Amino acid sequence: MNGQIVSVNLGESKVSTDPSVTMVCFGLGSCVGLAAYDPQARVAGLTHVVLPASVEDRPTHGGNGAGPAPGRFADTAVPHLIAAMEAKGASRRRLSVRLAGGAQMLAFAGSGPMWEIGQRNVAAVHQALAAAGLSPAAEDVGGNSGRTLRLAVDGGRVTVSVVGRGEHEL
Fold this sequence. Notes:
Elements: E1 4-7, E2 13-16, E3 21-28, E4 32-38, E5 43-49, H1 74-87, E6 96-101, H2 117-131, E7 138-141, E8 147-152, E9 158-162, E10 166-169
Parallel strand pairs: 1-3, 6-7
Antiparallel strand pairs: 2-5, 3-8, 4-5, 4-6, 8-9, 9-10
Helix pairs in contact: 1-2
C-alpha cells in the first residue's frame, strides 16, 4: 500500500482530503469504526467509537483538562465527525457510511446486557446516524472476532480485515 497511513486511535475522529492518506482503526473489538466518505467533495472521515453514550460527569480525555474526546462516545462521535467533514466541504446528503467492529470480546457466565458493549456500541451508532438522517451503506459488525478498518481517501474504498477471515471490501 502506497501513501501515508494515519492511525485513528481509541476515541479519535480524523478527517482528510489528502488522496495519499489511508486512515486506519486498528484492533476494533467491541469498539466501532465508522467510515464516511463524500465522493463529490472527496472528503473522508473515520472515527473510533469506544462506548455507546456520553455522560456529563465523565472524566476528560487523558485527565489533562482538554475536555472530553468527542469520538469516544457514539452519541457525540457521529455529529462531531459529520461537522468536521462538512467544515472540509462534504455534504451530509452525499455521505456514504460504513461500520465495522462491535464484537462481543468478553463473555462471563451469567453476564447480562451491561457487558454486551459491542452490541450496545453498534445500536448507539445506528441511533446517532438515524438522528443525523443517515444509515450505513454496509457494515461488518458483531461476532467475537477483532477487526481492522481502513478508509482510503483516494476514492473512499473501505476494507475490513477480520481475524481468522481475511480482508474484504465493505
